[in-house]
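FAQ

Q: What does a record look like?
A: Structure on top, sequence underneath. For example:
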């Protein structure tokens, strides 16, 4: 099982921590601004927030690029 699948299968998996941390770090107003920063459609952020879409590798890398959080930090935020 990949590390990302292990994280998303964990009962402690909470993608909201990552999304909120990026919003705070970049001083964005809301999820719509986050979707623009990540260059994804707003429903993608909504699906991640509602746990119907996991944070995939592509979005994780994009999160790293725009926030300067390390991949490790992002993964730890998801799993803690």
């Amino acid at each position: 099982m990949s590390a990302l699948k292990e994280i998303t299968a964990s009962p402690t998996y909470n993608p909201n921590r990552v999304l909120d941390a990026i919003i705070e770090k970049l001083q964005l107003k809301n999820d719509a601004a986050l979707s623009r920063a990540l260059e994804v459609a707003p429903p993608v952020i909504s699906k991640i927030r509602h746990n119907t879409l996991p944070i995939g590798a592509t979005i994780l890398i994009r999160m790293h690029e725009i926030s300067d959080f390390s991949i490790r930090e992002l993964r730890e935020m998801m799993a803690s």
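Q: Is there anything notable about this one?
A: The mean pLDDT is 89.
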